[in-house]
């Protein structure tokens, strides 16, 4: 195992145990891990988005690899002149000869480029209103894009899915598969659940009773969600424990054990010192 | 009886850190001393397995990685198991990532399964197209023209130079989709913008917390089965007869659940005892 892998194991073991130490109480180990996480995440995402989207897909479409056949026009000379100036300042982002990511030139991408810059202007109190244009475009585009998907899959698809079969040779009861009994539950659950969210009429009489039945279906659904949430959290805990057990092996020089012992000793010492501190006198009334 | 009631009430006042310690112990112990509890596939896992098992050799399957290190324990085992299953059937696997860190997960899984276990050839048996930002816009791009969305793969090779990309121009050129998803964008977006409009069948593996959100699509047949969290991964490993990380975690999962259920029961009994005493006095 390489030195880098061993060092990585020590870092991972420290950060995992530092986060777990919050279960005892807020402490400097947790603070260190929390700050590292926030800082690294911000840096990682910025770098990732720049090098996977902005550089190849935006700049790569504005200044694709130069084509000698088209470089004679005046516009292209000016356009790639700007590129060369940028390339002199940021050679890694704007390499010589244009950005070769398999794209052709699409100047329409100047619009998202300008909208993106406008969104960044939100950091200025005077120019922050520019950001609204970018946000408005994003919201409008997302709404339009999602409308069809939701209508097709969540409305039509789900109505089809809840149009259950009662006849046609289905058994009356089958715990896991299709059956008349399960179809009845789907019908009753769907209708009563929908009626619970029908607020145009007061929930009294039959409507109230059906709505109340809907609550029970919703409660069962929430219970299932809670159960799955617990299962998920335990799975993540198991995942961290499996890694910690790996890092406690001789190949990692028993990283987990050393860090755990050190952390417990320091937290124990801190708790001991805290107990010795005189308590603050109560304020006089 | 009164002493037992008092004991249960005292448990309710227990410092929560003792509960954390008990959970840590019951999760850790089975990892050191496995119990080998039986794993039986649920109907949802079986449907997903059957759908992929029915694909003939040479089929083109798109596998999308939409998770990162934070959900790796739940999703990675099922991604590994699904890749093992697909490669064992000589199926061509195309990998996309809707999450940036999904690309690292995909690289790790492909290194382990495609390169080290099956010794397959990159570009002919499998390809990692990589991450593209844009969420559902990427899904729509893959559906309409995958070559416009991916001009190069994750290794920087031009798509036109990759042999297994020949004849693959849009989503409907694939025979199946498997989405290994931990949230947005993920399974729901693939259903809405890819599988439903084109009719290409899909299955999914999700985090436990997502199961309730995705289950309506499974019930309606829009998604062919679902691998639900770590248990789903363990069940899939049982179906392909290759126990892995999912299986090794299931003993700890089961024991931890038993203890949590016990705590919930004790908590509820304590609540009723308190209420009874409050009414009495």
Can you tell me about this structure?
- The complex is a heterodimer of chains A (285) and B (281).
- Chain A is an all-alpha fold and 285 residues long.
- Chain A contains eight helices and no strands.
- Chain A has helices spanning 3-20, 28-62, 74-89, 110-120, 131-162, 180-196, 205-247, 255-276.
- Chain A starts with a helix and ends in a 9-residue tail after the last helix.
- With 281 residues, chain B is of the alpha/beta class.
- Chain B has two domains: 2-33 and 250-280; 43-243, Rossmann fold (3-Layer(aba) Sandwich), CATH 3.40.50.
- Chain B has helices at residues 2-12, 16-32, 43-53, 72-88, 100-117, 136-144, 146-149, 187-198, 211-219, 229-239, 245-280; strands at 60-66, 92-97, 126-131, 176-181, 202-206, 226-228.
- Chain B has a six-stranded parallel β-sheet, with helices on both faces.
- In chain B, helix 2 packs antiparallel against helix 11 and helix 4 packs across helix 5 (100-117).
- The two termini of chain B are 18 Å apart.
- The model of chain B has no long low-confidence stretch (mean pLDDT 93).
- At the A-B interface, helix 2, helix 5 and helix 7 of A face helix 2, helix 4, helix 6, helix 8 and helix 9 of B.
Radius of gyration of chain A: 31 Å
Number of strands of chain B: 6
Silhouette of chain B: elongated
Which band does the percent of strand residues of chain A land in? under 5%
Chain pair sharing the greatest interface = A-B, 45 and 58 residues
SSE string of chain B: HHHEHEHEHHEHEHEHH
Termini separation of chain B comes to 18 Å
Taken from the alpha-carbon principal axes, the silhouette of chain A is: extended
* Percent helix of chain B: 55-70%
Report the average pLDDT across residues of chain B. Answer: 93
Which range best describes the helical content of chain A: under 10%, 10-25%, 25-40%, 40-55%, 55-70% or over 70%? 55-70%
Secondary structure: number of strands of chain A: 0
CATH architecture of the largest domain in chain B: 3-Layer(aba) Sandwich
CATH fold title of the largest domain in chain B:
Rossmann fold
N-to-C series of helices and strands of chain A: HHHHHHHH
How would you characterize the largest beta sheet of chain B?
Answer: 6 strands, parallel
